Automatic annotation (TrEMBL):
InterPro entries: EamA_dom (IPR000620), EmrE-like (IPR037185)
Key words of the record: Membrane, Transmembrane, Transmembrane helix
Protein known as: EamA family transporter
SUPFAM superfamilies linked to this entry: Multidrug resistance efflux transporter EmrE (SSF103481)
Origin: domain of life: Bacteria
Residue ranges constituting the EamA domain according to the UniProt record: 3-132, 145-278
Organism field: Rhizobium fredii (Sinorhizobium fredii)
PANTHER family found in the cross-reference section: ACYL-MALONYL CONDENSING ENZYME-RELATED, EAMA DOMAIN-CONTAINING PROTEIN
Segments crossing the lipid bilayer: 30-47, 59-79, 91-110, 117-138, 144-164, 176-195, 207-232, 239-256, 262-278
GO cellular component terms listed in the entry, alphabetical order: membrane
């Protein structure tokens, strides 16, 4: 649980780095995963965790290790595209519907039991995110196609969480992280080359933002989440990650001087209450 919360805290900083990035959204997404390979590969050389791990033996093993990266690349690509088509509030809100799709897929595909407490906590947490983002009225500021793409992004992130959860019973954290991150970088690169006029930031500050996004948010955050999924159910893990928009609002207040209003404070409190209710389930 501690690792999952630490991962949520690390990823919550990603909007700050993306906001301050000097390259476009697709290029930022590419560098987010490509630069993260530096600490991940170094970690592999220094040693690996002792939890369940074995070398991939069959083609199907390699395909399974690549699958989370494909989902992650599609998630980042869809979410960044939605940010250019609809309001930031809509894109962020709808992309945070991932726990709904994780819960539905866990029940439909794997017959994972879903308690009433968990469903109640899920509903409360989703309501909290809606309040955090300005209430139902905020949805009227968006574009229907952009909103739809943000929902698709949530579906892809749900696929990422479920794929990681299944792999953690067979492979170690660093093996999954290396393969999924490398495959995500390879999938995002052609999208970035087609969508962006340049992949390279012009200043040292721009590179610093990309390294921060890669090292802190991806290498730190995603690895912590991958580790936690060996011990926690994917549905609860995805729900707990709803703490990200709460923390992102706090970080924007501290680092970017963006004030936290009463709606955001109430929404954040509702999200935390929903997570606590779901934890009992």
């Amino acid at each position: 649980m501690t690792a999952l919360l630490a991962g949520g805290v690390a990823i919550a900083g990603s909007p700050i780095f993306v906001r301050l990035s000097e390259v476009g959204p697709m290029a930022t997404a590419f560098w987010r995963v490509a630069l993260a390979l530096i600490p991940l590969v170094a970690w592999s050389w220094l040693g690996k965790d002792a939890s369940a791990d074995r070398r991939p033996e069959r083609f199907s093993d390699y395909a399974l290790l690549i699958l989370p990266g494909v989902f992650l690349a599609l998630d980042l690509g869809a979410w960044h595209l939605s940010l250019t088509m609809t309001s930031v509030a809509n894109a962020t809100l709808l992309a945070n519907l991932a726990p709904v799709f994780v819960t539905l897929a866990s029940w439909a595909l794997f017959r994972s039991p879903v308690s009433r407490n968990f469903m109640a906590g899920l509903v409360v947490a989703i309501v909290g995110v809606i309040v955090l983002k300005g209430g139902p009225g905020a949805l009227g500021d968006g574009d229907l196609l952009g909103d739809g793409i943000a929902v698709v992004a949530a579906m892809f992130y749900a696929g990422y969480i479920l794929a990681i959860g299944k792999l953690r019973s067979r492979f170690s954290t660093n093996r999954i992280a290396n393969w999924s991150t490398a495959s995500a970088a390879l999938c995002i690169l052609p999208m970035a080359l087609l969508a962006e006029p340049s992949l390279l930031p012009p200043t040292g500050f721009g590179w610093a933002m990309l390294f921060g996004l890669a090292f802190v948010c991806h290498a730190g955050g995603q690895v912590a989440i991958t580790y936690a999924l060996a011990y926690l159910a994917p549905a609860f893990s995805s729900l707990t990650l709803l703490i990200q928009p709460v923390l992102a609002a706090v970080l924007a207040w501290v680092l970017l001087s963006e004030p936290v209003g009463i709606m955001q404070a109430i929404g954040g409190a509702i999200v935390l209450i929903g997570i606590l209710i779901a934890r009992r389930g």
